[in-house]
Each structure stands twice: as C-alpha cells, then as structure tokens.
Amino acid sequence: MKTDAIKNTSPARMRFNSSHVGLMLLKMRTFIALFIILAFFTSTVDGFLETGSLIIMVKHVAINAFLALGMTFVIITAGIDLSVGAILGFCGMVAGYLIDHGIVLPLFGIAIFPSVWVIVPSVMIIGGLIGAANGLIIVRYNVAPFICTLGSMYVIRGAAMLLSNGETFPGLQGDPLLGNTGFEQIGSGHLLGLPYAIWMMFVMAGIIAYIAKKLPFGRHVYAIGDNERAAELSGVKVNHVKIWVYTISGLCAAISGIVVTSQLVASNPATGTSFEMNAIAAVVLGGTSLAGGRGTIMGTLVGAFVIGILADGLVMLGVSEFWQMVIKGIVIIIAVIIDQMQSRLQYKAAISAQQ
C-alpha cells in the first residue's frame, strides 16, 4: 500500500505542483518585472530612487495610469479602445480653447470665458460622450471594437487639429479679469507634499477597483468577457454595460488630457499620440487577458508603473528614443506571450482539478 501511495503521488503530483508554481509566477509577473526594473536602474543611474526623481516618475506614471484604468474594463470585455490617445489630445485642446477663446456668441458679439470649475467637468463630459459614441456604434451596428475605435481615433485627432488649425494654445494661465485662472494648479499643485496628479491616480484606482469588485456592474463586466452569450442569458444587459465601459474609458482619457494640458500649461493637437499603446501594454502586463474575462485594477496600476519607470529610466540612461520604441514594442510582445502561457496553464490546471 505504501508503494501504491508513492506511485499515486509522484509523477502527476509533481507535474501539478510544477505547473502550479509556474502559474503563480506568471500571475506575479508584473511585481517581478517592477522589482527587476527598479533594481537595474538603481544600480545604473545615480540618484534614481531619490525623492525628487521618484515624484517626477510617478507623475509621469499617472498619465498612463488614467488611460490604463479605463482601458482595463474595455479589455476585460474582450474589447479594445485605440481612441484614448486621441481623446486625450482633443480634450486638452477643448480645455485650451475654452481658456484662450472662451465660448463665442456671434449673435451677441461677445465671448463667455467659463471658470476652471466649469471647464474641467465640461471636458470630462465631452470625453465620456465620445467614449459612449464608440460603445453605441460597437453594440448598435455590431462593429468590431478595433475597427470602430481605430476610425474614431482618426476622426477625433482630425477634430483636434481643426480646432486650432494644427496650432498650439500656449500660456493657459488664464486672465484674472476674466475669472478663468487656476487651470495650471491641477498639474503643478501639491497636497501633503505630493502632486495632485498622484493623488488623483490613487483615488481613481480605488474607485474603479471598488466598482470592479463590489458593484454588480463590475461582475457584469467580467461575465461578459468570460462568456457574453451566457451573461446575456443570465439577464445581464450586455449592450448597456459595453456602452458604459467605453464611456468610462473616454472619461479617463479626458482626465488624462486635463492633467497633461495643465502640466504643460499648453495644449497641442498631437498630444497623446501613441499613448493608447502604453495603456494597452500596462493593462496586458498587469495580467488582464486580451481574450477577456480576467484582470485586476491593482495589476493594471502596477503595469503602469512598470511602463512608466522603464520609459523614464531609459531616458536617464540616455537611450535613444528609437531604441525606446523598440524596447516598448518588445515588452508588449512579451506581455502577450506570457498572457497566452498563463491562459494555457490555467486551462491545464482546471483539467487536472477535474480529473
């Protein structure tokens, strides 16, 4: 009997344990990657972990994190949003236009200059509406998310160019006489020693994580990504959830656009170009499956830190911008490969558990 027990527990159990360990390592890949990157740049760049450098890097991380947090819900539903970079740029241009030109009323021959407290929520609403339009087209006309958001990316980017004829709106401090000052404080202001952007990033991550874990909407998002047909049969309003998912993505892109424009104190129609790739990389690197149904907000946040710190570390090392593009592309490819490996190991683990 002892021999039989040994036979029963050696090969299969060893295979199970090895696959289980491999799966755990893959699930922790984002934290491992972040640790390796921090260790590498700490040993090669002087003062890399100094307080000032860290705050600047986390400010840069926040820009990508806003986009990635919204993108997470989209990818969990097995969708994609390629328009977030363009929405970022367009919303920044709208904010710049309102500060610089105000709302022109030709009939009365006047221009109304709204305060920052009006501009910020208005721009956020515009970003959300653009996202909602993406979602509506996808669900109403059954257009593939990749095609829909690719097309809208060009439309929105063109609209940003038309808003200023391709020019920049500089010096967005506003005018005290017009009552539209204070916009730059969003990007340069501090609370308890940390920039507002960092606080906003953590608050937004907390809100979206709460939605994902505690609210029915979050459970519906995961259900759609796991099996859309089954979710629909169980009573989930699939189309409504998808529209809201893209609305949230557009809203997050608008917030990112506001922060970037405020930090630069200027808006340029080309701002945000290729930012969608960084957001997707952060989401996938954070463990969200491109096939849908799997992902965490914490993983996305850590993924944004990996992408952001990698980019800043390469700049500090003096690496060419062209090589930076190559390295980012390799990171995205590796992240997708690892995601596929994790999916296969999870499938094998599920089969082994059933046996």
Automatic annotation (TrEMBL):
Keywords (A to Z) from UniProt: Cell inner membrane, Cell membrane, Membrane, Transmembrane, Transmembrane helix, Transport
Topology of this chain in the membrane: Multi-pass membrane protein
InterPro entries: ABC_transp_permease
CDD domains xrefs: TM_PBP1_transp_AraH_like
Transmembrane domains' residue ranges: 21-42, 54-75, 82-99, 105-131, 143-163, 193-212, 243-266, 297-316
Subcellular location: Cell inner membrane
Major localization listed first in the record, in broad terms: membrane
Family label: Belongs to the binding-protein-dependent transport system permease family. AraH/RbsC subfamily.
Name of the protein in its database record: ABC transporter permease
Species the sequence originates in: Celerinatantimonas yamalensis
